[in-house]
Amino acid sequence: MTVREELERREEKDLSPLACLSSQSKGRERFEEPCPVRTCFQRDTDRIVHCKAFRRLKHKTQVFLQPQGDHYRTRMTHTLEVARVARTIARGLGLNEDLTEAAALGHDLGHTPFGHAGERLLNEIMPGGFRHFEQSLRVADRLENEGEGLNLTYEVRKGILCHSGGEQAETLEGRAVRIADKIAYLSADIDDALRGGVIYPLDIPAEVGQRLGVTHSQRLNTLITDIIETSRGKGDVLQSPEKKEAMALLRDFMFQSVYFNPVAKGEEGKAQEMIRQLFGYYLLHLEELPEEFRDIRETEGKERAVCDYIAGMTDAYAVERYQELFIPKAWTVM
User: Fold this and answer.
1) Which of 101, 163, 105, 157 is nearest to 132 (CA)?
2) 157 has which bridge partners?
């Protein structure tokens, strides 16, 4: 018996009847021989962590554009926090932690430079729109591995796609990732906003503090514990009405005080204009796209190729390309 088979048997013995077992996965779009050591979901986790798109997340905005300081979240640290919250929920409900972790680590692979400001701009100018959760799946399916994709399992792919938007994941593990994403970004964004002086502790509604706690760790612990206690034996990943309402109050506060705050978001217009000009430039200069995007241009259209290229940029690389293309260089006498 291989190590993988031992792990699969352990899942069958230890996990909830509601969990998605790796031995019962619907598989990959392209067949591969199973790994003798890792389950299919563990293998997916490794593929995601080792891919280029994952590494680029460390240089992509979470909320605050290019903040001065080492302790603000990036898209990568957000992703890691989502994975930890989601795994804790999965463990508490007896779900498959490996599936949960893989979907959580892959959920933002397709996020744009400059956070949601970049996403809104691409959604505006890209024919058919742009949604980061769809792009994350596209990165996994089409763009990574020199155009071959990562060939992830069906359940991980659906967990990535369904972490946001209207469609719910079929597995409870995917649903755990969806709620973990919301918990992680709300709790972390408060932390970063306080650090940046955008808000102050007394600005946070008293009712939120009373229901969820007043510190980052208290809020996380309250929300995660509530989900585990409320969801046990229910066949879904749920919140109690009280905590769901408190989280909605917190979300409303964050949109009013942080996400639409002109102090915190004052530079987003500039970032969006950079992306707009880069998009227009590459539409006119398709020959300057990297080689891996030329096949996309020929098979799916030039807009799709340019969108894929720009969506994959880090903040710093987008600024670098913009400066190279649009900012005059200093002239000196040789």
Assistant:
1) 163
2) none
